[in-house]
Specification:
CATH architecture: 3-Layer(aba) Sandwich
Pfam family, one: ABC_tran
Shape: globular
Order of helices and strands: EEEHEEHEHHHHEHEHEEHH
GO molecular function: ABC-type phosphonate transporter activity; ATP binding; ATP hydrolysis activity
InterPro entries: AAA+_ATPase (IPR003593), ABC_transporter-like_ATP-bd (IPR003439), ABC_transporter-like_CS (IPR017871), ABC_transpr_PhnC (IPR012693), MetN_ABC_transporter-like (IPR050086), P-loop_NTPase (IPR027417)
Protein name: Phosphonate transport system ATP-binding protein
Distance between the termini: 30 Å
Radius of gyration: 19 Å
Number of strands: 10
Helix content: 25-40%
Number of helices: 10
Bound molecules: adenosine-5'-triphosphate
Largest sheet: 6 strands, mixed
CATH class: Alpha Beta
Number of domains: 1
CATH topology: Rossmann fold
Strand order of the largest sheet: 6-7-8-3-9-10
Oligomer: single chain
Strand content: 15-25%
GO cellular component, one term: membrane
Length: 272
């Protein structure tokens, strides 16, 4: 389904992604972990064609997506939606309009400029917001929502594209532990229920272990681990992070320890 073949990206003398290869034969939920600068974002950006590769191929369903041009490239970018750490919403625009922006690539420029969307798209946007537990905020400005709610709006916008793959670049790095869990659960549910592949860059080991079927570890641009969460032992993690024997998983943890926070999560999840 997805074949990453000897993928390399150089920025001058710096090799950000170094001869990376892996194969995915069904739509899994994949976590990419590694310390800052390991090449995780650059990989996602190549996959979505925001950055060109220096060498190698990314084949999705048999096509080398790195060779696509013009309308084919835009169609791929629509099939492969991206969400970001900072949500990238239009802050002063209402939530529904932000979600409808997910149809941008498929809409004539003029109708988008004047916010003219077909009724069925508006209904679909509201259905998606409902699915994510935030339909009650549909008419509010995006900036009025909490970080966790804004990230769910960004996921809703991605879903409007009806993508085959969702790429998430540190989707929970700006969120508190409670909202981080709500967002990760939303991504996992979308994967489970819709069968979409999700590839998420994550900076916390426990999140990768808990939500992903497969974990890829990057260090200095190279893939140094590719396995199941069960295979991701503390020793392996130490290798990925290039850490010494004093390495503590707590340093990369988003676990919630206070019982009160767990109760809050359960309340929030009822809405999901
Ligand atoms: N546009 C760019 N120009 C030059 N160098 C870049 C550019 N983008 C990334 N790099 C370099 O490529 C390497 C990998 O960066 P990348 O952002 O992919 O790492 P990362 O694992 O996503 O880290 P982080 O978690 O901090 O975002 C780093 O050394 C970075 O400085």
């Amino acid at each position: 389904m997805l074949v990453v073949d000897q993928l390399t990206k150089r920025f001058g003398a710096n090799t950000a992604v170094d001869n990376a290869s892996f194969t995915v034969d069904r739509p899994l939920m994949i976590g990419i972990i590694g310390r800052s600068g390991a090449g995780k974002s650059t990989f996602l950006r190549m996959m979505n064609r925001l950055t060109d590769a220096s060498e190698g191929e990314i084949r999705f369903e048999g096509r080398n997506v790195l060779a696509l041009k013009g309308a084919d490239k835009r169609a791929w970018q629509s099939d492969c939606a991206m969400i970001f750490q900072q949500f990238n919403l239009v802050p002063r625009m209402d939530v529904v309009s932000n979600v409808l922006h997910g149809t941008l690539a498929k809409r004539p420029v003029l109708s988008t400029m004047f916010n003219l969307y077909p009724r069925e798209d508006i209904h679909r946007a509201i259905d998606i917001l409902e699915r994510l537990g935030i339909a009650a905020h549909a008419a509010k400005r995006a900036e009025a929502l909490s970080g966790g709610q804004q990230q769910r709006v960004a996921i809703a916008r991605a879903l409007m594209q009806d993508p085959k793959v969702i790429l998430a670049d540190e989707p929970i790095a700006s969120l508190d532990p409670m909202n981080a869990q709500i967002v990760m659960k939303a991504l996992r549910r979308i994967h489970d229920e819709d069968g979409r592949m999700v590839i998420a860059n994550l900076h916390t080991l426990d999140t990768a272990r808990r939500y992903c079927d497969r974990v890829i570890g990057m260090r200095d641009g190279r893939i140094v681990f590719d396995g199941t969460p069960a295979q991701l032992t503390t020793g392996v993690a130490r290798d990925i992070y290039g850490a010494g024997s004093d390495f503590s998983e707590d340093a990369t943890s988003t676990e919630i320890r206070e019982p009160v926070a767990v109760t809050e999560i359960r309340h929030a999840e009822v809405a999901l």
